[in-house]
Amino acid sequence: MRYSGSICAKCGEVFHDHDEVVVCPRCGTPEHKACWLETDSCINEDKHDAGFLWQDLQPGQPMAAADGAARQNSAPTPPVRTQVCPACGTINDVGEPVCIRCGQRLYLPSAGDPNAYNPQVNSPFGKKGFHYGYAQTNFEIDGIPAQEVAAYVQQNADIYLTKFLYMDNHNAKTGFNWAGAFFPFLWLMYRKMYKTGLIVLCLFVLLGAMTFNKAQIENSKASQEILHAVMSREITPDEGIEAINELPVIEVTAMGYALLIISFSLRLAICLFVALKGDGLYRKKVVKDILSIREQADTSESYFMLLAQKGGATLGGMFGSFALYILFTIGLEQLAILIVG
């Protein structure tokens, strides 16, 4: 083991070959996994801003002396032999600048490089997230190693692992997902939760149709007839604009205002539901899919290939759902015109 014979900075015990070690990604301080989990942070965290870097402390050497030597040493020595890609979970040699599989940047942070990748993730729950990529023994999510979960999640894997770990440690059933709050069905489709995303999309279309009224439908029908006349050159474009300007102004009745308020309130409720429950729903999907993939794959290579194929996110699903929303809305409007006409 890389740290065999060195001393744990927290408990003062010597590391042995069989020990599980967690290395701080900021300063390189090694600790026993159990010691790290006691506070979920580095013992030298208060020294990070001053550029502290860990220096190997051998048995018999005073900790204060090692601390002073570390302060004088400004050369950032990579503290680990391997590092795990935060995007796909692939293990890389510490000298690799980018992941050998997906190309994600893997530079370890240094005090002199403001653009260096910083693995400390700011969590929406008000505490720093635990970055799984620099622990020799990763934590688990519902019995699934973090590396496998990261290989499935791919985009923003570190953020979602932080959320999942928080939910585990605090037995939380809800979280908060900003993308789900503002773009509920788009985010659901982006994360390949197609069934739930389609349900939310249809609800949004139906709630929008609630606000249709007879005058609005008649004006829409008349506008389409004017546009058709312009396109077929029965009238000039100027005459078409004049005809549209002469259409009656739509007056909103008390019932119309009530329907608008109801429609807005129900849409807001859906947005809040997806925001609060979205991370939990996504976690269930991740665990369910990974367990299913385990049954399908017969080799490690095929297993991670299936994780990459079935997991991740899809821009096609997101843009496709937006196109469906527009088509469904237009389709309902046309149906209403046919019924009224």
Mean pLDDT score = 77
Count of helical regions: 12
Largest sheet, strands/sense/barrel: 2 strands, antiparallel
What structural category do the secondary elements indicate?
A: mainly alpha
Verbal overview:
The chain is mostly helical and 341 residues long. The chain has a domain at 178-213 and 252-279 and 314-340. 51% of the residues lie in helices and 5% in strands. The protein has twelve helices and six strands. It has helices spanning 33-39, 63-72, 146-153, 157-170, 178-182, 184-190, 194-209, 214-231, 237-245, 254-296, 300-310, 315-340; strands spanning 21-23, 30-32, 82-84, 91-93, 140-141, 144-145. The strands form three sheets. A two-stranded antiparallel ribbon has the order 1-2. A hairpin with a 6-residue loop joins strand 3 and strand 4 (91-93). 26% of the residues are buried. The model is unreliable at 58-80 and 107-137 (pLDDT under 50).
